[in-house]
Amino acid sequence: MNRASLEKRPDEVAAMFDDVAPKYDLVNDVLSMGQTRRWRRIVVDAVGAERGQKVLDLAAGTGTSSEPYADAGIHVVACDFSLGMLRVGKRRRPDIDFVAGDATNLPFADNSFDAVTISFGLRNVSDPKLALREMLRVTKPGGRMVIAEFSQPTFAPWRTVYTEYLMRALPAIASKISSNPDSYVYLAESIRAWPNQDQLAEWITGEGWQAAAYRNLSGGIVAVHRATKPGREDVANTGAQASLKHQSSRRTL
Ligand SMILES: C[S@@+](CC[C@H](N)C(=O)[O-])C[C@H]1O[C@@H](n2cnc3c(N)ncnc32)[C@H](O)[C@@H]1O
């Protein structure tokens, strides 16, 4: 198994991440030129969880995105469907609650988390809209969702430079340091095929979340989207809900 196709068959995606698991965090740091650490801090701030709350970190991989919550005394559940990634994570952080599960069919009860977050994972899910609905189901009314995902640089010349890096330099560098350089061809292709900031915000509200907003990081290489699950009083007001669903979501965090 080398790389997943853009059809994102779950077995291919999980096997690809099983393959890259041992060096995943190292390669990430190199390819993002250290930026991932800053992006992660911003995601944690956007989640805004407090001690005593329960957070689901979906597509958590080796748990690097889950660690700041655990370090802050927040009960974080790190869920992923690649057993290879989970094993590496559990070995490094035995204190974190790692759970095997598919984002499109989550093994959690309705309304069980104060917040859900997914970093660099939604793009890999075979049916991302179904995952957005599953995240909504397991979040408590009024709870928050935060997504970090690669996106589209907003400044056209920068977008050209970045696309060039993505399609040429990134697979070349990965071939030197990764055990599975082909998976970085998939990474580049999947980023190019992913919806831009506004389109993703529309998906989010289209699946029932409200108050979707986003913030661009590193000129739009990454976007952090945030949204809220309607509270019980919002649900009671079904008329308002229907209009919210189609509201434009161009707000900034
Ligand atoms: C690029 S890694 C991100 C890991 C981690 N969140 C981070 O920020 O480092 C993407 C992860 O998504 C997981 N993934 C992809 N599709 C999934 C699905 N349907 N259900 C659960 N995990 C999934 C992969 O197994 C992989 O570990």
Automatic annotation (TrEMBL):
Keyword field contains Methyltransferase: yes
Pfam family, one: Ubie_methyltran
Residues holding S-adenosyl-L-methionine: 62, 80, 102-103, 119
Record GO biological process: methylation
Highest taxon above the source species: Bacteria
Catalytic activity: a 2-demethylmenaquinol + S-adenosyl-L-methionine = a menaquinol + S-adenosyl-L-homocysteine + H(+)
Role, per record: Methyltransferase required for the conversion of demethylmenaquinol (DMKH2) to menaquinol (MKH2).
Protein name in UniProt: Demethylmenaquinone methyltransferase
